[in-house]
Specification:
By secondary structure, the chain is of the alpha+beta class. The chain has one domain. The chain is built from four helices and twelve strands. The chain has helices spanning about 1-10, 40-50, 75-85, 210-220; strands spanning about 20-30, 50-55, 60-65, 90-95, 100, 110, 120-125, 130-140, 150-160, 175-180, 185-195, 210.
Length: about 220
């Protein structure tokens, strides 16, 4: 039934290859600072001021931190990115089905791009001028305490923008994600620029490490 729904609601996704530059602002940080810790309050304010950019062209994409109210090297910014938004940049190569995550310490973590098991819904809303549909994705992860946790990501995607590139590493929907709730942070597309002109994407160079080895390295620290 879900396949039929896709065929009916999203009939054609075969537009010519375009490039694009999407700016996301942090529209909300869903976090209750019950302890009233001043550093956390500052970090939340810093997170809310941050913007991120998604660039894509010729089967390549790059999602990266764009700036905020503090310098990228300031403690509130680093804490906000590590705790609430994104401390990493993400590159994807759709042709080779590869992703490289550039972590905060400069490590290049490589993984294979695999289809995510999105659950599509009939919920809709307008973002900018685009009709968007709601989808959710739930995954499990292992904490540093070696416990298993789960997280549900909520995405609103626009079939009118039929590009397989999205914020962070959450791709695979039949349309560009214009709003993403991941953890405490909600990313909202506030500027959408689509062009037929090629946009240069500089693929990262250097030694890479696979995701499993990197996680084991982190857990040992």
């Amino acid at each position: 039934m879900r396949t039929l729904l896709l065929l009916v609601v999203f009939p054609v996704i075969c537009a010519a290859q375009n490039s694009g530059k999407i700016t996301y602002s942090i529209s909300d940080i869903d976090f209750d600072n019950k302890s009233k810790n001043a550093d956390i309050e500052t970090s939340v304010a810093s997170a809310k001021s941050q913007t991120f950019t998604l660039e894509f062209s010729d089967n390549l994409s790059h999602f990266f931190y764009n700036g905020g109210m503090d310098s990228a090297d300031d403690f509130p910014t680093k804490l906000a990115r590590a705790s609430f938004t994104s401390a990493s940049d993400y590159y994807q190569d759709k042709t080779k089905k590869l992703q490289i995550e550039t972590t905060s310490d400069g490590t290049l973590v490589q993984k294979n791009l695999e289809p995510l098991k999105w659950q599509l819904t009939s919920d809709t809303k307008k973002i900018d001028k685009y009709q968007c549909y709601k989808a959710t994705y739930t995954y499990t992860f292992t904490t540093r305490a070696q416990k298993t946790g789960t997280r549900t990501v909520v995405a609103w995607f626009a079939p009118e923008l039929p590009f397989p590139y999205d914020p962070k590493a959450y791709s695979g929907l039949p349309g560009l994600i214009l709003e993403l709730k991941d953890g405490a942070a909600t990313y909202l597309a506030t500027k959408i620029a689509i062009s037929e002109k090629a946009l240069p994407i500089d693929w990262p160079r250097g030694k890479t490490i696979n995701e499993q080895d990197y996680l084991e390295k982190i857990n040992k620290q």
